[in-house]
Here is the input.
Amino acid sequence: MSALREGALRLRARPGRTALAALGILAAAAMLGAAVLVAFGLRTGFQRATRAADLPDVIARFGPEPRATVDRALRALPNLESLAYRYEVLHVPVSGGGHFTERGAVQVVEPGRRGYGVVAGRDVRGDAMEVVLERGVADAWGVGVGDRLELGRAGQARVVGIGVSPDNVAFPLAPVARMWLTRAAVERRFGTDPRHEITEALIWVRDPARLDVTLEQARVASAGLSDLRFITKSGVRVLLDQAAGIIIALLAAIAIVALVVAGTMLAASARAEVQRSLPAIGLRRALGFPRRHVAGLHAAEALLLAAPAALAGVLAGALVASGPSARLLEAVSELPPGAAAIAPLALTWLGIVVLVTAASTWPAWRAAGSPPLRLLRGADVSSTGGGGRAVRGGFLALGARLALARRVRALSVVAVVAVSAGFISLLLAVGSLLSSLENDPGSLGKRYQLSVSLHGTAASAIAAIPGVEAAAPRYVLQAAASFSLAQPVKLIAYPGDHTRFEAPPLAAGRRLRGPGEAEVGAGLAEALGLRTGSTLALQLPTGREVRFRVSGIVRALDNDGRVAYVQPARLLAAGAAVPETVAVRLAPGADEARVRRELTRLGASPSSVGGATASSAPFLGTVAALVRAVAGLDAVVCLFALAQALALTARERRPTVSLLRAVGAGPRTVGLVFTGAAEALALPAAVLGIVLERLVLGPAVSRLAAGYVSLPLAAGAGNALGVAAGLALLAAAAAAWTARRASAVPVVAGLGEE
Amino acid sequence: MPLPLRARGLAKTHGHGRAARRVLDGIDLDVAPGELVAVLGRSGSGKSTLLHLLGGLDRADAGTVEIAGERLDGSESARAAVRARRLGFVFQAFHLVPELTAEDNVLLPARLPGAAPGAARRAGELLDALGLRAVAAQLPRTLSGGEQQRFALARALVNDPDLVLADEPTGNLDDRSGREVIALLRGAAAGARGVVMVTHDPGAAAVADRRIELAGGRLAG
Here is the structure.
């Protein structure tokens, strides 16, 4: 009889246990399927969207200029593949689907490459009054292809397509409702524009590695264009990350950790199954079957069990995660993986099958090498069993002793549940972190509470308000690194000591001491290869270059860590204007409402300072759904691991349980025994899980998500207690289920087992 | 004084349909205080089934069982409570819990809700009386079969039950150990307590006050 056929017969002969093992594989595979889909979708979403949208390598934005002027300047650029132009009209009143906004952004496009992708319907063409509507607007307003929009003075336009452009996040994360319309349609409605003005140039290059050369020339050639800004693909990436980058990075990191967690659980679970079969292995060896026969049989069984269960699990997990992860990607104008996810999911399935098979075959092979007599006696039953010590704590303690008697298996179960508990603990810590990132300015190292829209010269008047500890103009400039123009840099400057207002922790070096020095974020230092003592050369929007000596590296979360803190003297010398924003730090115990009233009296409109993801509120619901889905799957895995361990204990200890019942133990007492067994596994696992999260999982996710900053991902006392209590409840539920099943077995049947 | 055991019209069929086999067919059995009753019969005659019905470990198709005047019926919890208060079991396979010391095994029924008070004292007396004190702290697997069965007997007696049910108590023992256990069972049938012993060992049955034969689902003798 072939190993596969015999394996199938053995699986069929014990349907309950087979179903339980299959359920365990299914639950872990579901977690893996969800994790792989999320990680793959998030890691590749931007590239997929840029490819689908044919996003240009550089977008140059400027004030309205005649197309001929711009074309003359850019046409001769080196490394140029193609050019396209747009005219953007902002603040267009737009209504449709029962919704209205005054912040419509109509991008008037010309024949040629477009720089956006059409995901439904078709592109705009000819001079018909038709638009491609940005997907975020279409989804939020419930507008589809064929519907009509009212576009201010332009009147009605028909939606012919739904578009995606990853040069910005989607509506409503971005407050403007974007759409694309042909210049021919606009000219037909409003007449020909004799100047043929444009506000954007889309530049595609032949060799992206030589983008710096093209940018350098573009800056020179475009001198004289008003309000000129260049945005590169990596700049677009940073722009998207400002809205949601840290959240996406966290989710992707969680998914990667989930892969490791689920893999560990599958391996431990498969090993426990072999452990349970040791007497049967001993019998075969005693009858003379060779070692490879035993190992082959276990391999065949594992294969037959894992292949369908893993397939169902991976598909279920991917299905559960696909909705929230697609919404997440759509919110940042990225595309869900679609059919591209089939390959990684298929690999996941294959990986699970190989892992389960190997985790069953190897211990079976090793066990088959042991003396048959030892295997027949149960092999892993503790040799001491705590002998000589009286049982304290009644039937709970008896249950604990029953569960711990099989030490290897008990350790496997504790390991599986500990890893699961650690993972759940990690998810709770991520939840707390997300909340702090949204609400706590301290998460960005900000130490000021209010931001005031007033000219910087008003700072001294504001500082005089009772309750205000300090006030200073806050300079924020978007610059580009001179030696790598594709790298955007956010420059933040305060007169004097910036740490009164923003004090991201120092990772290396020291704080800046003068106008010639800069503290750079670790993200920027990594991107530009900067160290303490290096020179930071930046191109300002004014076209002038400024240089600073790097005095220190700081762990800044803002702008993916691509920030530099300086003093404003050199910026002002390079033509930067005094900002229209003043940062206000309140004195401890100050009456914020009163300070606000005083500020309003000065003509300012104060606003509270948010955290790193304050602008991503619409996003967080989706993230919460994803985290909940993964945590739910993980809790199912925990429950399964405990139920499986108890079911096996109940099965093997039927004589003991029946004896208890024979001498007068009712269902409640049997329940106590199994509760003791379950808690003996769950409580150490909870403690181990929390330690694992604090020492391993939290730091790992922090490193994976944002190497440029240290994220506080250690579970707090409340979370730790929650995990322990949740696990204790899961254990009690598993115990109740097992006790119920054990009590349903006739006493006589159990006693007759020996 | 109520009888330790009073069974009326016990019937039990194993299997269904054409495979159905009537194992017990209207059994009546009374056991008097201090009486040791031996139930004999060939293998498959239904001896163990009768014992299981008498102890409420299995449900009869018909009939009633009273232990010291208390009906053994109702829910599993109710029957378990009667077992804890009024019954002691001795099994052929001893059924000592392998993780507990021999003494803890003896005390196991005493931990149940509703167990008679004074179990610790009785356990001590039983260990002394049965000569088990020296090995009481050992695990069952380190004990001989005879010692294990004596501990099982001490466990059956620790709650001072009204009835002890013994299922082939010498089946796994050598002659000498078997004789010792039978002597102890003989001694257990004292005062208000009765003992029912199922056996196919004529030597064991010889010490009983009454021997009854189970054949064709009915008792004779």
